Amino acid sequence: MELFYYMVFGALGAVVAALELSKSNKDRVNTSAAFNSFKNNYLLVYSLMMAGDWLQGPYVYYLYTTYGFGKGEIGQLFIAGFGSSMLFGTIVGSLADKQGRKRACVTYCITYILSCITKHSPQYKVLMVGRVLGGIATSLLFSAFESWLVAEHFKRGFDQQWLSLTFSKAVFLGNGLVAILAGLFGNLLVDTLNLGPVSPFDAASIFLAIGMAVILSSWTENYGDPSENKDLLTQFKGAAVAIASDEKIALLGAIQSLFEGSMYTFVFLWTPALSPNDEDIPHGFIFATFMLASMLGSSIASRLLASNSTRVEIYMQIVFVISSASLLLPLLTNFLVTPSKVKGGGITFAGCLQLLGFCTFEACVGIFWPSIMKMRSQYIPEEARSTIMNFFRIPLNIFVCIVLYNVNAFPITIMFGMCSIFLFVASILQRRLAAIGDKSKDWAMMKERDAEAEPLNVP
């Protein structure tokens, strides 16, 4: 492995360690013992859930190839997963508000375990069923758990600012440390112990089962709007009205779709971008480096969210501009650096530049997750939280399906350029959201002053 990879990984690791060790009392928020117990319980469950997800990711495509399926058939399987998340996942995720968020989290565990079991079959139809189940599970993972956390946090009377602590730590652990450990553990199972490409899916099932046991034994149920006279169609209408009538919610949904759509496109394209001529690159080590960069971002986010002087709506404008610039690098290097025509070998100079840009983008991803969670907790109404969050995922899944279907139709540089434009648009929408938020706060303060002054005018 080339020295360059070690240098990037080591530099990122050193910065993350320095940031975490240098946290002063000013950066820490004083909380209660009850909150810390609640937070640690959620972090344990969330880490187990993410371990079940991360263990599968690196081996899905590889497993399908070992069963003899070609690129076209595998592409159809992936499209089925995202399509399922858009259609069935939206319905199942929306039921969480009515039937209970804890129940939805348990459903996630069961659905994903069943999806893992289907990986033992080389039959295309069985694998397709597995992808449909996986799509439903993904929608629940990114809506039900957060909805349960926000509702339970306020139900127990905890301070709103403390919610940011849970969000940033969940991303630091679940999307950073757990992802790295899951990648290494999967590599141990498949390459070192030679247990085969299905073994990570079996391990994922075990982690999911353990997490489900913790949920069943320690979580209480909460609901969005449990009224029995509201059917699913009424819930959908209510969510659509909330999005259409509140510009802040609509902007938040557009921002989320633009960023996550670019992020998932990046996931598909980073490998061919770094090895356009079949260069020999260490995929597992680069993946771990990306996750370390994401940890760096979440560590930065924890400081920003803990600061009373820094508003999330303001700093996210800068984050989106930086992420836009970072994904523009493949397009720029294509023009500024003479592309190599030599097949094989190690990573090129252009590849090194792009890797640094990709690490910057992953750091932005690490900042994005806890920050978007914070904004969702502020702007999305509690009674339809899961439903609205799953509505946000509809344009995202449509976008990813279109990209997957046309992945060979456009050059990689054009795809990255498109993502860069989307991220820049997200920064513009974020600026608009910040402006509306300022107006809303000013209006609320004026109303409060009028209410205080009113008794003075009474004769």
TrEMBL record:
It comes from the Eukaryota. GO terms for cellular component: plasma membrane. GO terms for molecular function: molybdate ion transmembrane transporter activity. Belongs to the major facilitator superfamily. Phosphate:H(+) symporter (TC 2.A.1.9) family. The chain crosses the membrane at residues 6-22, 43-62, 74-96, 128-150, 170-189, 201-219, 285-306, 318-336, 348-369, 390-406, 412-429. This is Molybdate-anion transporter. Mediates high-affinity intracellular uptake of the rare oligo-element molybdenum. It comes from Olea europaea subsp. europaea. Keywords: Cell membrane, Ion transport, Membrane, Transmembrane, Transmembrane helix, Transport. It is a multi-pass membrane protein.
